[in-house]
Amino acid sequence: MHGxxxxxxxxxxxxxxxxxLATRRAAATALGxxxxxxxxxxxxxxxxxxxxxxxxxxxALVDIDDREATARWLKQGTAVQQRAAxxxxxxxxxxxxxxAEVTPLLGTNDLPLQRAVIDVIVxxxxxxxxVVGVVRSLLMRSNTTSDKMRDAYRLLLAFSGNKAVQxxxxxxxxxxxxxxxxxxVLLDVVxxxxxxxxxxxxLASISAALRRSDMREVVDCGLSILERHDVAALDAEVRxxxxxxxxxxxTFDEQLRTLAADNKRPDDLRVRALAARGGNxxxxxxxxxxxxxQFNEDTPITRRxxxxxxxxxxxxxxxxxxxxxxxxxxxxxxxLSSLLDAFEFxxxxxxxxxxxxxxAVAPGLANLSASRLERVVHNFxxxxxxxxxxxxxxxxxxxxxxAERLAALESTIGGGDxxxxxxxxxxxxxxxxxxxxxxxxxxxxxxxxxxIGSRRNARxxxxxxxxxxxxxxxxxxxxxxxxxxxxxxxxxxxxETKEAIQLRTTDQKEMIIRRVDIExxxxxxxxxxxxxxxxxxxxxxxxxxxxxxxxxx
Length: 553
Description:
By secondary structure, the chain is α+β, with helices and mostly antiparallel strands.
């Protein structure tokens, strides 16, 4: 801290020969703080086996900030020394790394050095001309490893806005001879990029991928893209070309319906294909039958949700709407909200009567907000809205009613069986495991519950199940996003960039929303976890579930 340069020779000795790693790390830190360039030749020859010592060494180089002395090691050093010098030059104030210094290192066979080179290139968008060549060398080899695939993915994703990169992806995806693993990597880039809308050439590429019916993983990736991106929201070039826009939408619709009609394919792919078609489209009898057949306890919740989304977005006939009212009497809170979308533009009284009657006994009713129900019945006659009034009053119940219900149930939850509770947690009826992880198993949508029993008592756990919005878990707060197109989405923000946010909505759908399309972004007081899950359980199931959660410590 004193900056005593007379101490440098002694610190070099300690750095190279001290027995204690802590002493060597402290010596490296001190050399960096003093800032004497003569220390660089003592720092870089190190071959540290300790990650903390390596970090201290690189940080010291950054502190010293001598470009010329550090850059020499990019050419003369070992792979370990080149990596340290590269990271230091990239981070120091006056490193001034050039493309000519960095790109030759891509040819290394040393994986940590190659990763460091890619990290640096990703942070320099002005070097985009190098990316296609680098990716080509990573992907085109016959013995390409999974590590190199991941590196190519990172590079392409970072430069997905570059025209040359977009053209490369298009050409590879359109080529029927492109191997399946490479195709999957390229489609993963298209899926995960924050470009919204996607380039028109990529849309044609997705269409080509969906035609490759012999490759399950390729078709799966193509559907994932359609699920995450709004393919109808094309860029200005396509928006102004109505014929091209219509052709693309027709092509996708035909392909997706062909996928759904192929009973040799797994049901999850067929259902996802219908869910990816978009809104206000008709369903034929076979398609509707496929979707409605998914609503049973043996079907995974993710497939049930996809089926609910497909039904809710479709333009249904009167007979189909009547069939959906029967579904509403049995489905849980997760599926109910999506199914109700199908009724928002309905106005026929006979449908309205059946809908209100179904909602009155629906297990998932408690998960609805009063405003959501008001939107559903808005277009119906005053008579139907009057019928809905008691349900609205029920949904608008006060906090006192919640407290009374909690107190009434609290006395009944003792003595549960944790083993039976684990089966409830993992069962398809409640589908807790879809969103929550326990001991490394399960989803990542909600908090990890591996040690929840050591942090929450039985009453807290009961309240979280019954009224999840009463106490939002930190880091899992939901947000309400209003777009300039008049749409409102509620969900968790998975990731953010300066161009877009990635949102997982309450019906477990992931989407990319451009910031320029966001009119308002506000925290929500409503949990993404549905209310009313206890309606899907017997009192014994609820007691056992609480016991299981209490046992997690």
